[in-house]
Each structure stands twice: as structure tokens, then as C-alpha cells.
Design brief:
406 residues; alpha/beta; 9-stranded mixed beta sheet; 4-stranded mixed beta sheet; 15 strands; 36% helix; globular
Length: 406
């Protein structure tokens, strides 16, 4: 029955945090000292066998699960911020006025968006958030929101010398198209050493966004970029790695992204971000999506070193290419008029569903269908996470509407 003490301790810690208990609160329920709980969680020993029934009941799992169940889950690292979402009647020309119809506040960035969506898809998943915030009201707000969903926030560092990053989002009411005005804050100093790889217990580490994490985007003599160094360390520990990028104007896109791909198992990007690397146009002259150029771009990503799978998504479809050359296209759902309330975080919702499908070993077609339906859920609300549904509801939505014709 004995298993690795560190693995056992990590599982106890994850289950405790998921139940939103402190070590002291768990200790009181078990009638032991908080030092004993700390010792277990740090891999220094095991509880007495007579405590296991009570421990399993408190944590809501079977005794067998404590020793055998898969508790690795998914970790999301990188960009963390607060979104101030403004719904506007239309985007104005320079020096002109538009009307702000509604303003809401929400968490934003790769880490909160992706991980909360994952928690809503499957509340039983073990999820770990990694990044930096300021020691300020916005930082405390982000952490409190993540804790509401049972996310392990022990990997988020609060930096007193920085403010929490924020983004003012202008989202058109009818089209859902949006523009971002961003303050990088603590994200700008997030680096390799801020991730405790040795104690990281996950099956997949997803990091985003490339091109919006100033320190991780810096050059590295050995790995090309600091982001690549982080991914290499995770892979060396047996963790599968995944990345996302940001749609941002600027030069040297290829130089910033290509070095990381060698250390990726998965790359999940939209058509703009991916084709900016290869220089191919994602669209034809008539504005339709260029499946040919999307596929050629994905093939180059495999050549650049992505080990398992490249996923590219756009409003019309999702595309998957495995390292063995299997290419799959699944059109998006044809949504009725009035369905879309906003598109903030739609890419993160799609990525979250992809990560879930990868973790659960969905086949490629199912994965892309599931991701398209999850993204559609996101579009039902103006912020980045409120629209997401659980797995069963997403699967139902997937069958509710027809698909687009490419």
C-alpha cells in the first residue's frame, strides 16, 4: 500500500486546497497537529493507518484513491491580470467618441482564463496556477477568484515591488470584436526561477502568452529564449508542455516563438499568431480562411520541433496536425443571431477545452468539436469565464447547432 511519500503528500495538499481548507483546519478535523499535516504534505511521512477512513471522508475521496488515483492534473503558468471589460456601441475613429454601454470587472490573462474554464469544465480536476501578481487589491482579487474554483494558488507569487497587471478591454456590442489596452505589471518580471519545477506535480504544463511576458521572452544563450528554458526543465521532469501566444503587433515574431517550439509537446495558437511565424497569409484574397496555408504553417511548426500536436483555431474552424502527419479540420458551430455577447477570452476557452481533451485522450475530431463548443459557450457572456459550462453541457451544445461550411 505504500507509495512515494512526496507523491502522497502532494495529493493530500491538492485535495486539501481543493476543499478550501488550511493545514490547521484539516489538523483539527483529524485531531492532530498542523505540524503533522505539514510533514505529510512535504513528503516526510504518512498518517497512521487508523486515520485513513477519516482522512478520505474529509477530502471526499476513497482510501484507494489516496494511494492510487491520478492527481497530476494540469498546471497553467504565465500571464495573470484583471480585465476591465467595456461593452461599446462601436469602435470610434481617431479623435471621435463612442458610448460605453456597460463595464464589468473580471480576471483575465492566460492563467485565470484557462484554468477557471478548466475548473468549470471538470470540477474534479487538479489544477495549479503559476505566475506573479502585485501585493495589491487586484492581486488579492485574482487569487480569491481562483480559490473559489478550487485551484491550487501556491504557485502564484505576490511581488510588493510590482502592481498586478491589468487590461482595459473595448468590446463591440454587436460583433464582439475587441481591442486591449494593457499594463504588464508583475507579469513583466515573471521568470524561470519563479516556477518550482522540482515540486511541480502535473501531467501538462501550459504556458502563455509568448510575446507578453517580457522576461520569459528574453533571449537565452543556451535555449534561444527564457521561455524555452522553462519548457525544457519541465520536459526533463517528464511533464508534457504546451504554449499559447498573443496577437500583438511587432517585428521578430518568428524569432520570439520558434525557439520555444523545440521544447513543446503541444502548440495551441490562433491563425494570426501561427501564420505570423511562417509569414504565410491565413486568409485568401476574398477573406476566407486559407486551409492550405494553415496546414503548411502547422507542418512547419512540426519541423520546428513540436513533438506531438499542433492546434490552430480561428472563428471558422479548428485544425489539428499530429507529428505523424494526421491532419484534421472541424468547422465551428453556426451560431444564431444574438447568440454572441462578447469574445473576450474565447481563445483561452478554446485552449482550455483542447488541454482537457489532450489530458483525457480525446481523438482529434472529438477534441476539435469539443473545443469549438466550449468556445461557443464563452461567447454567450461578455467576460472571459462566465459563459463556460461543464463537460456534459458542452457536449450537448456541440450537437445543438449545424457547423459552418468552409
Amino acid at each position: 500500500m505504500r507509495v512515494n511519500a512526496t507523491a502522497f503528500g502532494n495529493k493530500i495538499a491538492k485535495l486539501r486546497r481543493k476543499a478550501r481548507m488550511t493545514q490547521k483546519e484539516l489538523a483539527v478535523k483529524l485531531n492532530v497537529s498542523d505540524k503533522a499535516v505539514s510533514k505529510w504534505e512535504n513528503g516526510g511521512g504518512y498518517p497512521e493507518i487508523t486515520m485513513l477512513p477519516a482522512l478520505s471522508e474529509i477530502l471526499g475521496v476513497s482510501i484507494d484513491y489516496l494511494f492510487k488515483g491520478d492527481a497530476h492534473g494540469i498546471a497553467i503558468a504565465g500571464n495573470i491580470l484583471v480585465d476591465v471589460v467595456n461593452i461599446i456601441d462601436k469602435y470610434p475613429q481617431k479623435n471621435m467618441l463612442c458610448n460605453i454601454l456597460k463595464t464589468t470587472y473580471a480576471v483575465g490573462g492566460c492563467v485565470p482564463n484557462t484554468i477557471i474554464n478548466l475548473a468549470k469544465i471538470d470540477s474534479d480536476m487538479f489544477l495549479t496556477a503559476i505566475g506573479k501578481v502585485g501585493e495589491d487589491e487586484n492581486g488579492r482579487y485574482v487569487i480569491s477568484q481562483l480559490r473559489k474554483y478550487g485551484v491550487d494558488v501556491s504557485g502564484i507569487k505576490a511581488d510588493a515591488s510590482e502592481i498586478t497587471a491589468s487590461s482595459n478591454v473595448m468590446s463591440e456590442e454587436v460583433s464582439g470584436e475587441r481591442t486591449f489596452f494593457y499594463t504588464s505589471g508583475a507579469n513583466s518580471s515573471f521568470d524561470v526561477d519563479d516556477v518550482d519545477i522540482d515540486s511541480l506535480d502535473c501531467s501538462i504544463l501550459h504556458v502563455g502568452y509568448i510575446r507578453l511576458l517580457e522576461t520569459l521572452d528574453k533571449k537565452d544563450e543556451e535555449y534561444g529564449r527564457r521561455m524555452a528554458r522553462l519548457l525544457a526543465k519541465a520536459q526533463a521532469k517528464g511533464i508534457k508542455t504546451s504554449v499559447d501566444a498573443i496577437s500583438r503587433e511587432g517585428e521578430n515574431v518568428a524569432d520570439e516563438i520558434i525557439p520555444t517550439l523545440k521544447y513543446c509537446n503541444y502548440a495551441i495558437l490562433n491563425e494570426i499568431e501561427s501564420c505570423a511565424v511562417t509569414g504565410l497569409s491565413p486568409r485568401n484574397a476574398d477573406g476566407s480562411i486559407s486551409v492550405e496555408n494553415i496546414k503548411a504553417t502547422m507542418e512547419q511548426f512540426i519541423e520546428f520541433g513540436v513533438k506531438d500536436k499542433v492546434i490552430v483555431h480561428c472563428c471558422e474552424a479548428g485544425f489539428s496536425l499530429d507529428s505523424d502527419g494526421k491532419f484534421v479540420v472541424v468547422p465551428s458551430l453556426k451560431l444564431p443571431d444574438g447568440f454572441i455577447k462578447g469574445s473576450v477570452g474565447a481563445g483561452d476557452a478554446y485552449a482550455a477545452a483542447c488541454l482537457y481533451g489532450l489530458y483525457k485522450d480525446f481523438d482529434d475530431e472529438h477534441l476539435l468539436e469539443f473545443a469549438a463548443a466550449a468556445a461557443a459557450c464563452n461567447l454567450m457572456e461578455p467576460d472571459s469565464v462566465s459563459g463556460m459550462k461543464n463537460r456534459e453541457e458542452i457536449e450537448k451544445l456541440n450537437k445543438m447547432y449545424e457547423r459552418r461550411t468552409l
